[in-house]
């Protein structure tokens, strides 16, 4: 267990022994009071400034509509809601500076109509981003806005936000809420995939979001009525916090079944041995995660070391699966968001979103034909990461 994982688990153990393990506080406001204001239930044809709010969101978070600015909480909502948003920014409200996402809730029918109009102006492509552990609505929309800006995606971008707590010690709560949200997400994904005007759904799932996305795709495949869900073709798992062995066992039987791969479905998984968040997850769950090439089998690790090879172990070769190892170009304090932080990874990610499957910067990991390493690029030093990844340093969440 590395130092980060030990440091993360220590507070959990101490809190458990003290009998004060973090719990979800209902709060001193009835949840029904948060949504009593009519703005929480917008009527059809209510005006929304699409130019000011160009991006789309779907959320199962509980909204707080008591103040002029709607805020999405960490509690479970009473139903799924739809809306539009713009990139979050610092705003001064009541003398206090807060990081807020400009947003407007929208009637479900209006939202689908706006999404269709936006997709129709493009090529029918839609990008769906699903966040992971320890995210607020603001950090989720910040990342979704960066993805839209960085990729220049030629269609509408949707952020799906489930009620993550945005707290380090609330990992178990986030897992619980993620599983609670399975029905909500798979119903939305099914509705999206069944729209006749959607030609392709590009799905980007980060961290714990992979555990929401992968089984939902399998559900949509089973439930697809005639369309065969073939428009879900490009699936990107960034730092996926999903059991690696479970993924290996199940994926070729459903999401990457032979018929799906024959119709060009593919999964690209970005992994890193320097991902401290996934090292902590491995310590909690006992088994390695798909997003970390940790060698669980010590005999395999010893053999790699004896052969002078990097001690890294990956998911087995599965048709339709490509693994991109970002260990050597990892960025950030945890190395858990390289696809948004590292210039080399950002460039690769942009190409994958665009459907370009081959990049000269990828170095094959022989004899594993499905695994590639990304190596440092002298022409893209660390100080160019923000520029190439098009991070907006003026809108960074605290």
Automatic annotation (TrEMBL):
Any one Pfam family here would be DUF900
Tell whether tRNA processing is among the UniProt keywords: no
Tell me which UniProt keywords the record has, alphabetically: Signal
Any signal peptide, and if so, which residues? 1-18
SUPFAM superfamilies cross-referenced by the UniProt entry: alpha/beta-Hydrolases (SSF53474)
Know the name of this protein? Esterase/lipase superfamily enzyme
Q: Which organism is it from?
A: Sphingopyxis panaciterrulae
């Amino acid at each position: 267990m590395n130092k980060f994982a030990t440091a993360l688990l220590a507070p959990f153990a101490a809190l458990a022994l003290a009998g004060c393990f973090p719990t979800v506080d209902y709060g001193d406001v009835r949840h029904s009071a948060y949504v009593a204001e009519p703005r929480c239930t917008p009527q059809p044809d209510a005006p929304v400034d699409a130019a000011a709010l160009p991006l789309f969101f779907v959320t199962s978070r509980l909204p707080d509509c008591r103040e002029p600015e709607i805020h999405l909480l960490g509690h479970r909502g009473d139903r799924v809601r739809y809306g539009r948003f713009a990139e979050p920014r610092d705003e001064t409200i009541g003398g206090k500076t807060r990081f807020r996402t400009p947003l407007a809730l929208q009637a479900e029918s209006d939202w689908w109509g706006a999404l269709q109009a936006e997709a129709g102006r493009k090529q029918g492509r839609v990008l769906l981003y699903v966040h992971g552990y320890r995210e607020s609505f603001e950090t989720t929309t910040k990342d979704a806005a960066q993805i839209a800006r960085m990729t220049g995606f030629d269609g509408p971008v949707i952020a799906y936000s489930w009620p993550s707590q945005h707290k380090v010690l609330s990992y178990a709560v986030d897992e619980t809420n993620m599983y609670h949200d399975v029905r909500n997400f798979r119903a939305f994904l099914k509705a999206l995939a069944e729209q006749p005007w959607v030609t392709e759904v590009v799905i980007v799932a980060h961290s714990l979001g992979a555990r929401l996305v992968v089984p939902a795709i399998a559900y949509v495949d089973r439930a697809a009525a005639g369309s065969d869900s073939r428009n879900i073709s490009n699936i990107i798992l960034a730092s996926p916090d999903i059991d690696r062995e479970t993924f290996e066992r199940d994926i070729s039987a459903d999401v990457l079944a032979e018929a799906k791969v024959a119709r060009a479905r593919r999964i690209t998984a970005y992994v890193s041995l320097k991902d401290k968040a996934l090292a902590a997850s491995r310590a909690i769950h006992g088994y390695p995660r798909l997003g970390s090439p940790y060698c669980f089998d010590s005999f395999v690790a010893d053999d790699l070391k004896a052969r002078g090879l990097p001690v890294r172990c990956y998911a087995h070769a599965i048709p339709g699966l490509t693994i991109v190892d970002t260990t050597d170009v990892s960025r950030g304090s945890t190395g858990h968001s390289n696809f948004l932080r590292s210039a080399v990874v950002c460039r690769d990610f942009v190409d994958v979103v665009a459907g370009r499957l081959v990049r000269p910067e990828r170095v094959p990991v022989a004899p594993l034909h499905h695994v590639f390493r990304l190596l440092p690029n002298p022409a893209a030093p660390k100080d160019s990461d923000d520029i190439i990844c098009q991070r907006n340093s003026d809108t960074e969440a605290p």
